[in-house]
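Before the break, one more example. Copy the sequence into your notebook; we will annotate it together after we see the structure.
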Amino acid sequence: MHRLSHDEISRIRTTPGASALLFITDRCPVGCAHCSVDSRPDSPRITDFALFESIVDQLCRDPDRTMVGISGGEPFVERRGLTLATRRLAEAGKDVVVYTSGIWAAAPDPPRWIHDVLDRCRCVYLSTDAYHEAGTGPERFVNAARTAGAHQLPVVVQVVDEDGGADRARELLTLAFGDTWRRHAEVVPTQGLAHGRGGGIFHPGTRRPGRTLGTCDSVISPVVRYDGRVTVCCNESVVMGAGPALLRRDCGSGDEVATAVEDFRQHPFYRALAEAGGGPLTLHPKFRDLADRGFSDICGLCWAMARRVRPDEADPLLRTIPLLAKGTPA
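Here is what the structure looks like once it is written out:
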C-alpha cells in the first residue's frame, strides 16, 4: 500500500475535486488553550448514525475524490464513527488520512481497534506543541508516533512554530525513533489560528489591501461534518457556524451532501476565488471598494465578498474573471 507524504497530500488537496475532509466530532478531551474549534470533552458528537453512514457512503461513491481526511475534535474519541468511516472509505479505495493529538496512546500498545483504524490509513498527522503537551504529556506523543511507525505510516507532526516548538517536536521524535526519525516522520511548522479559543492567544497578521491577495486553495476542498453541515472550505469558524451563510449548507442526507458539494464546485464565485484569486476579483464592480480595504488574510476578503453574492449567482463576469486572470480569451 502506497503511503502519503505531506507534499503528496498537499498536492492532492490543491487538486480541484480530489479530496474532502470528514469532520467526525466536535469532542476532544485534551483542552488545548489554542484550539481553533473550541473543542471540549462535552462538545457535540455523532447522535444520528443513519445520517452519518449516509454521509460516509456518499464520500465512498464520489468518483473524483481520491483522498478523505478525518479530523475533529479528536477523531479517536469517536470509536464507532471512526471505525465505520475508515473501514468503508478504505474498502472504497479512498486514501484515508487522520488528524490526531495522540490522546489515545496512553500505553505503548493501544487497543486492537486503534490498530485496525491505523491499518486503513495512508498517513497520520500528529499534533504537538506546548499547548498539546500540557494536555497529553510527552509519553502519549511518543507512544502514538511509535504505533503509527509500526504500521509503516508516515507521521507528519504539525506544530505551532513558536517558543522552540519545532525543536521540541524533533526531540520527541528522537525519543520515539532515535536519530533516524526522519525516515519515519517530518515536522511541519504551522501558524496558530485566531479561531475558537485560539482567538484569545493568536492575533491576525498584518492587514493587506484586498487587491494584493491571491487564490484560496482550501475553497476547492470541502469539509463535511458528521451532522450534515457542508462547508466550501476548511475555515474552522465557518464549520462552527460563523461567517456568511453562503459558505455552508446544512444537509439531511448523503444525497443532499453530494448536491451541496457539486453546487459549491460549480458556483462562479468559488471558482473565481480558486482560479483567479481575491485580488483579480476586486476588479468586479461588486467588489471594487474592497481593493484598498485591509484584510489580514484571504478569509477576511472572502467573507466580505460572500456577503454580496447569492447562492444562485449567475453573474457572467464572475465566470470571465478567471479567464482574464489566466490571459485566456473569453
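The chain has a mean pLDDT of 89. The chain has twelve helices and eleven strands. Try to locate both features in your own notes.
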